[in-house]
Amino acid sequence: MGTPGEGLGRCSHALIRGVPESLASGEGAGAGLPALDLAKAQREHGVLGGKLRQRLGLQLLELPPEESLPLGPLLGDTAVIQGDTALITRPWSPARRPEVDGVRKALQDLGLRIVEIGDENATLDGTDVLFTGREFFVGLSKWTNHRGAEIVADTFRDFAVSTVPVSGPSHLRGLCGMGGPRTVVAGSSDAAQKAVRAMAVLTDHPYASLTLPDDAAADCLFLRPG
User: Fold this and answer.
1) What pTM was estimated for this model as a whole?
2) Hey, where are the domains in the chain?
3) Which class would CATH give 11-20+41-215?
4) Name one GO molecular function term (predicted).
5) What are the residue ranges in the chain where pLDDT is below 50?
6) How would DSSP label each residue in the chain?
7) What is the pLDDT of residues 43-62, one digit of tens each?
């Protein structure tokens, strides 16, 4: 689905959103993103879609770009999916909350059970949620608070859910991800290494770890198509 939570399960669909011109004009600067080369971003977006279809054999669902939602292509923040359940998130930034509307409709059309966040005190960005195949880790960051993490635990009660403090401007999955069914990959920054150490203390499951030079390279999903 292009959203966290399904990475260690089997999936048949991928959900992406087109690149709006507003992102290229620098309207994503509020989220710390530089202005993009629009043509290059659109080419890379097309390559991504092709790999999802041809290399992984996924059915690709593409939402149209929306100029009023410059960060709309970052679909990972809008839902947490595991099995047949999709938790629609409540992004920290009010300007980003309309992004979930199109995602909700697409997931409903796929027949997933939709869970909404009704608590206005909760904030939850999907890229603060890491599913290992055995348990969830939720990063407590600028973007996601304790109440958001509690709602993840309430939604996915078949799995343990632990909270991990995240320092700096990153989401948890901007620091680490799953490189295999039992392998956590993480960047080499202090923030990334602190997060991995916290996860190791909290879990009852053994994971191998792999440290990468750049934090951004650790933001990945391990997929089993089919």
Assistant:
1) 0.89
2) 11-20+41-215
3) alpha beta
4) hydrolase activity
5) 1-8, 29
6) --STT-TTSEE-EEEEEPPPHHHHTTGGGGGTPPPP-HHHHHHHHHHHHHHHHHTT-PEEEEEPP-TT-TTTT-GGGTEEEETTEEEE-B-SSGGGTTHHHHHHHHHHHTTPEEE----TT--B-GGGEEE-SSEEEEEESSS--HHHHHHHHHH-TTSEEEEEE--SS--GGGTEEEEETTEEEE-SSHHHHHHHHHHHHH-SS--EEEE-SSGGGG-----EE-
7) 999 999 999 899 888 899 99
